[in-house]
Task: structure prediction
Amino acid sequence: MSGRITPTICDPDHGFGIRVRLDSPKTLPVADADCRCGQFAESAEGEVAVQSLVIRAERHMRDDCPLPEVRAAAALRDWRRRHPTRRT
Result:
């Protein structure tokens, strides 16, 4: 058997972004992320690795991506996380 293979989360034409999957509390979470610019594409398996991947992917999209529309969308997501709406 060669190396560890991370499971595929979606079909081959899944698009860009971050995908996290946790089927049940007893299974390992898996995630993959890729950016439209093509400079970031990774996958992870396990709780700590998935958390790290999500943080790295969001930081890339917010700070390092050469596409301005990707940076703007990530900045908006970051702002919304820091300033949640108060619904009554």
Observations:
- The longest helix spans residues 47-64.
